[in-house]
Design brief:
Length: 255
C-alpha cells in the first residue's frame, strides 16, 4: 500500500512538473504580467491547482492554469495576499460558464469562444488592482543552510512535504555570503536572472524569475533566499535554487 501511494505521488509530481515547466516557458515568452494565465489541451485537470500554486509562489502574481477542451477551458486559480481571485473572476461575470472559490483559490470554466475576451478582462482588472502598488512578498526564512547542504537527500526529504501551496507553503532557505561565479539574463527581454553560485567548495545553479534587472546591480558576494528544486532539462536532472530574493551580502541573515 505504501509503495503504491509513493508511486502515485511520484506520478502526480511528475505530471505537475510538466505542467509547471510548460507554463513557465509560456510566461518567459510573454514577459512580465500582472496575472499569469496559461491554458493548454495537454494539461491534466487533476494537477492544474497544484501547478497554479507553484507559479503564484514563483512569480508572486495570481496564476490561472487550465486545460483547454473541445468546447470549454476549465482550470484553477491561485492568488497572493491582497488580490481576491474570486472577486477578479466576479468581474468577468458573463464571460465564465461558472466559477467559484475564495480569496486565495478558485475554479472556473470558460467557453473557448470567449476565452480571449475573458483573459483580456482579467488582465485589465489585475492591472488596475496593482497600479501604484509595490507588489513584493514579505519573505519568511525557514532555515539558513550552506550550499553543500542543498543536496539530493534534502530534495528527497522536502518532497515528502508535498503537495505544497496555500496552507502548506514550500520551505524557504537562505545562504549567506556566496559568490556569484556567473550571471546572465534569460527569457523575453531579459526578464529573468540565471546565476552560478559558489561558497568556494560547492557550485549550484540558480534562477531568479522576474529579477533580470538585478544582473548589473549585484556585487560578487550575495545573500540568497530560495526554494531548492530539481531542474530537468534535455534529459539531465540537476539541483537548482529557485531564487525568491537576492541582495548584497550582509553581516548575517535573519531567520
Amino acid at each position: 500500500m505504501a509503495e503504491e501511494l509513493e508511486r502515485a505521488n511520484d506520478e502526480r509530481r511528475r505530471i505537475t512538473l510538466e505542467v509547471v515547466e510548460l507554463a513557465r516557458a509560456r510566461v518567459g515568452e510573454q514577459g512580465p504580467q500582472d496575472v499569469i494565465v496559461v491554458a493548454d489541451p495537454s494539461f491534466n485537470e487533476g494537477v492544474v491547482g497544484l501547478a497554479a500554486a507553484r507559479l503564484a509562489e514563483t512569480y508572486y502574481r495570481p496564476a490561472l492554469i487550465a486545460r483547454r477542451g473541445e468546447r470549454s477551458t476549465r482550470g484553477s486559480a491561485r492568488s497572493i495576499p491582497g488580490f481576491h481571485i474570486t472577486q477578479a473572476l466576479d468581474a468577468c461575470a458573463g464571460l465564465t460558464e461558472r466559477h467559484g472559490g475564495h480569496a486565495a483559490a478558485a475554479g472556473f470554466s470558460v467557453s473557448n469562444e470567449r476565452w480571449d475576451e475573458f483573459v483580456n478582462r482579467l488582465e485589465a482588472f489585475a492591472h488596475e488592482a496593482f497600479a501604484g502598488r509595490d507588489v513584493s512578498p514579505v519573505l519568511e526564512i525557514d532555515a539558513e543552510s550552506s550550499l553543500g547542504e542543498v543536496s539530493e537527500n534534502l530534495l528527497s526529504f522536502l518532497q515528502q512535504l508535498e503537495p505544497c501551496g496555500h496552507g502548506n507553503p514550500a520551505p524557504v532557505l537562505a545562504v549567506s555570503k556566496v559568490r556569484v561565479v556567473d550571471r546572465r539574463v534569460v527569457g523575453k527581454e531579459g526578464g529573468h536572472l540565471k546565476m552560478t553560485l559558489s561558497d568556494g567548495r560547492v557550485f549550484r545553479e540558480a534562477i531568479a524569475f522576474r529579477q533580470g534587472k538585478k544582473a548589473d546591480e549585484l556585487p560578487e558576494e550575495v545573500d540568497v533566499a530560495f526554494k531548492p528544486e530539481w531542474n530537468d532539462y534535455m534529459g539531465v536532472r540537476s539541483i537548482q535554487l529557485n531564487v525568491l530574493d537576492v541582495r548584497p551580502a550582509a553581516t548575517g541573515v535573519t531567520v
